[in-house]
Amino acid sequence: MNDPVSRRSFLHGSAPVIAAAPTVLRALGANERLNIGLIGAGGRGYYLLERLYKGVSPPFQVTWVCDAYDGRIARGKDRVQTMGGNTPKTTREYRDILADPEVDAVIIATPEHLHHSQTIAALKAGKHVYVEKPIAHTIEEGAEIVRTARKAGKVVQVGTQNRSNPLYIKAKEMVEQGLLGEIHYVRAFWYRNSLEDNPAWRYAIPPDADETNTDWQRFLGPAPKRPFNKARFYQWRLYWDYSGGISTDLLVHQTDITNFVCNKTVPLSCVASGGIYRWVKDDREVPDTLSAIYEYPGRFHINYSCYFGNDHFGYGEQFLGNEGTLEVLNRQYLNFYPQKFGGKAPPHVAARQEVKLHIPNADNLSVEAHLRNWIEAIRGKEKVLVPPEVGHQGALPGHLATLSYRNGKKVYWDEKTERYRFG
Asked: pTM for the whole thing?
């Protein structure tokens, strides 16, 4: 049967469930305007601008737009003018934003390999930070961000927005209520597909792109130096220097939300395998096919799979309890099925009824809620849902999968020493 909780009550009554975060530091007054700089105005940054304007109430203003490609700067500037009603300053150099004393906070939506240096610099400049996931390109970089954020005393939110999705909040409630019984196994998956003329992550390169309007050196940042390469700039997710591919772009969303729903933190071990099976006609380095197996403390197991050659099953997590199954699919459907035990279910299990929920457009709403939570935390009204410590925990399984895949070995994590080793 349908759960009686309405979508409206779901969206507006979920905040108390997600209160595992550090104490909120005093920041701006409730009625002071928040000045925000956008660092990275590509696909994700442009999208975050839209969600910011649609989901967050004033007073705030985007006063800077930064990107390494002039076309994105122009597009981001136009979006601010259209939706925000002001004309932002623009730059290719993110440090110009950090040097502006009028800027209170920055949104970092750059390629993965730049998250560390830009977040560290922003915190040292006294800015609040919203940084897209993963928090960093390596385990060591993520740990340094955690340490720096603690010292800086600024509000940092990592962009794993599933924790703001009311369906996952409901899933967490159901687990805590014991509706699934004991949970020892979670299956997570993300399947995609596209036509031959649209290979996975081969985004269109702007026709006008060249070395005069594409700042290659600023894009490279700390990455190894190479000659100008349009594919690496505009399709950076395909190359190890800038991305962990599936592991850190997709998988981390699902291991993070499993942590949230099932009250977990970091795994004990990971073994991953896969390869480039579908898109073999280009120079991509990261796999298009990946499976990863995780063991966690407390007899807990995650089975993850991703393939870029079939999208029938889409995206989802399935939480398999010994008394019930709970699945969240495509970020907008929640289904609960109590175990039947061949018609011999114990009375307390037999009394449970199926639950089916659907919230259209839930991911957009979740991103808006995630940004709103960050800004309300800056104003001292809320606690951030994904502080650096939690963002680092969420990214760790992705890094372990990359290490296992690239080295062809099982990798073990020691939470006490914060070190990994290969088996």
From this structure: 0.92
